[in-house]
Amino acid sequence: MINPLWLRSLLAVVATGSFTRAAEALDITQAAVSQHIRHLEDGYGRLLLRERRQIELTPQGRLLFEYAEEVAAATARLRARLADDDPAQGAVSLATPGSIGLALYRCLLDLQARHPGLQVSHRFAPSAQIAAMLLDGQIEFGLSTRPPDDTRLEASEFVDEALRLVLPAGHPQPDWAVLQRLGMIGHPDGADMAARLFSRRYPGQRVSTLPERGFVNQISLILEPVARGLGFTVLPQFAVSAFGRPSELYVVEQDPPVVDTLWLVTRREWPLSAAASHALEAMRAHLAAM
Questions:
Q1: In CA terms, which of 85, 90, 165, 247 is 20 to 30 Å from 197?
Q2: Of 276, 285, 240, 280, nearest to 85 (Cα)?
């Protein structure tokens, strides 16, 4: 590996046309500049022609000069990335559960459209997988339905999300008989969500006694059969808000609501990049406006 100080001296000599001015620009002695060039020429042959008080690069010198420029540019890029002071540049990597992921998807697309220098990687994943992805360095932050157990991670409350009972449009305030007649559109978390919501809304009733009319494992599609009158379901609020045809649904209000807290999870010792912090601000503003 070539000593970067020697390469800096070569760049300065060519830029200023003088060993003396190069030393002044680098704030070192002229003897040091001469020594650096001598070290380079010992290893790579004659680099500079010094005639009529002008400095000209030899063919070998031109090649090494181009290499020195590449090293300087790479060093500048590295310093910029390490400084990380531009919220409109760089990578933003995150993972979220499906419900809030649907609500945030367009927000993140809008953010990237406003700042083309951002590269946004957004994955949908369950909470246990999100913790593993953080520890493996695959993402910078995640949103989780529960705080992590691993002490290498830290969590703070990000947003609350209510569970919603959703029926086809046109149904009256549902009693248990209405739900039995309609039947449930199930999904991977459906039985658990329904049990939690119904324990408050229909105390003493069991979700297992309700017929299941269908099952969907893609969160963006769960409300399609409900909108077509094929059954009811229970989903988090953000998944309901993301559905494109709200007039085809009847969302039952629950007072007081059954609420889940979503947690912002990060590596404990790793500060967020400026780009990630900016993305989080945009996400919070988007959710607050919903």
A1: 247
A2: 276
- What pLDDT is stored for residue 80 in this prediction? 66
Domain with 72, as residue range(s), is 4-83
What is the distance between the alpha carbons of residues 4 and 10, in angstroms, rounded to a whole number? 10
Overall average pLDDT of the 180-195 stretch: 93
Q: What angle is formed at CA 33 by the lines to CA 28 and CA 36, rounded to 5 degrees?
A: 125
Note the helical H segments in 27-175: 30-44, 59-83, 98-114, 127-135
- Residue 104 amino acid letter: L
Residue 84 pLDDT > 70, yes or no? no
Predicted local confidence at residue 50, as pLDDT? 82
CATH of the domain at 26: 1.10.10.10
Rounded to whole angstroms, the Cα distance separating 134 from 140 reads: 6
pTM over 0.85: no
Q: Which residues are bridge partners to 161 per DSSP? A: 260
- Which strand (E) or helix (H) includes residue 45? none
